[in-house]
Design brief:
There is one protein chain. The protein has two domains: 1-74, Multidrug-efflux Transporter Regulator, Chain: A, Domain 2 (Orthogonal Bundle), CATH 1.10.1660; 75-130. It has six helices and two strands. The protein has helices at 3-10, 14-22, 40-54, 59-69, 76-110, 120-125; strands spanning 29-30, 36-37. The protein has a two-stranded antiparallel ribbon. The N and C termini lie far apart (65 Å).
Length: 130
């Protein structure tokens, strides 16, 4: 199937599919005319990558996961380790976002939002502790 059909089946933009090919994440065959020819297996791999990317895995993690997916001798421990590391990264981001939210919520609460020029939000952003 051509790239347009692969894009429709996977929900990925053709530009993204071309990028994945460019970085050797996928390797569709080429017809005599030079056009990409995506097999059923290629579409499955694109689905796999899309789902992994939707879960926030990096392109390099996707590369590793694809390698494990296609390796009949893989161990689930290898896969779990990658997923666990990613989960830890997500947890750290959540902590950062919660701290950011708490700080910003406090600043919004402290700002009167009136016609005076004094604003604790701007003061905090400027590093002014007045």
């Amino acid at each position: 199937m051509n790239i347009s059909d692969a894009a429709k089946r996977t929900g990925l933009p053709a530009k993204t599919i071309r990028y994945y090919e460019q970085i050797d994440l996928i390797s569709p065959t080429r017809g005599e005319n030079g056009y990409r020819d995506f097999s059923f297996e290629d579409v499955q791999l694109l689905h796999f990558v899309r789902r992994a990317r939707d879960l926030g895995f990096s392109v390099e993690d996707c590369r590793t996961l694809l390698g494990l997916y296609t390796d009949a001798n893989r161990t689930s421990a290898e896969v779990k380790s990658i997923a666990q590391n990613h989960l830890s990264e997500i947890d750290a981001k959540i902590e950062q976002l919660n701290a950011m939210r708490e700080t910003l919520s406090h600043l919004v609460h402290c700002c009167d939002g009136d016609s005076r020029p004094t604003c604790p939000i701007l003061q905090n952003l400027a590093g002014d502790s007045r």
